């Protein structure tokens, strides 16, 4: 993670926020570490294995976070509102591969 990125070393506020929430909750952190381990094979370093792991983990992160957002909106009966539009816009800005890449890099450390 480079220090030349605009928000706390991350590409944007939205990405930093999602990562911070995942990383600050022990249950969530443990779950995502397990998911990262499922995708990452340290012996598949050549041939794009790490990038495949990042891509697969990023897809799962995106799907699960977006599904959770939909459930929260449904519970509040705010499926179509300014709140839902703002949440959707924020989630579109998240760099899922950046978060997944950090998780995979932590496995290698």
Walk me through this protein's architecture:
- The protein is mostly helical and 109 residues long.
- The protein is 72% helix and 0% strand.
- It starts with 12 loop residues before the first helix and ends with a helix.
- 19% of the residues are buried.
- The mean pLDDT is 87.
What does the secondary structure layout of this molecule look like, with pairings?
Elements: H1 13-24, H2 26-39, H3 49-75, H4 82-93, H5 96-108
Low-confidence stretches: none
Q: Tally the structural domains.
A: 1
The total of beta strands comes to 0
The rounded distance between the terminal residues' Cα atoms is 13 Å
Structural class by sheet pairing and helices: mainly alpha
- The percent of residues in helical segments reads over 70%
- Overall shape: it is globular
> Beta-sheet strand percentage?
under 5%
Radius of gyration: 15 Å
Order of helices and strands: HHHHH
| Mean pLDDT reading | 87
Count the DSSP helices: 5
**Largest sheet, strands/sense/barrel:** none
């Amino acid at each position: 993670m480079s220090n030349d990125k605009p928000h706390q070393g991350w590409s944007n506020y939205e990405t930093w926020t999602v990562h911070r929430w995942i990383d600050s909750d022990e249950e969530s952190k443990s779950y995502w570490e397990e998911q990262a381990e499922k995708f990452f094979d340290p012996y598949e370093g050549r041939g794009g294995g790490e990038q495949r792991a990042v891509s697969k983990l990023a897809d799962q992160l995106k799907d699960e976070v977006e599904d959770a957002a939909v459930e929260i909106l449904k519970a509040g009966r705010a499926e179509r509102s300014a709140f839902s539009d703002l949440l959707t816009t924020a989630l579109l800005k998240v760099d899922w591969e950046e978060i997944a890449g950090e998780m995979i890099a932590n496995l290698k450390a």
